[in-house]
Amino acid sequence: xxxxxxxxxxxxxxxxxxxxxxxxxxxxxxxxxxxxxxxxxxxxxxxxxxxxxxxxxxxxxxxxxxxxxxxxxxxxxxxxxxxxxxxxxxxxxxxxxxxxxxxxxxxxxxxxxxxxxxxxxxxxxxxxxxxxxxx
Length: 135
Known about the structure:
The protein is α+β, with helices and mostly antiparallel strands. The chain has one domain: Hotdog Thioesterase (Thiol Ester Dehydrase, Chain A, Roll). Helices cover about 25% and strands about 40% of the residues.
């Protein structure tokens, strides 16, 4: 199912530890920035991942990632990481994500997240309450 909702945005400050020897954000750290936006989006909608684990034995894991790096982010930049659900199936969500510095798009990505049973590590249906708040 395809969804259309407005993007959630989360501020990210680039720290020295995020950069490589050239002062540019190390490519893998863009994934961390995207992760923060997805986590904060769930939190903003009333879902804490540690609580989902305790109460529903549910975890979310990354299943696949596609990222396009367009412009470099640098030390001390203030960025906005966005996340919006663009598709969902019974056991997974696909997020479209961007990393912005003002009006400049630095990176875009599509991240598919799977919902799993924390003990068996097998796919588990995404709770309806989560789907309803993301729709």
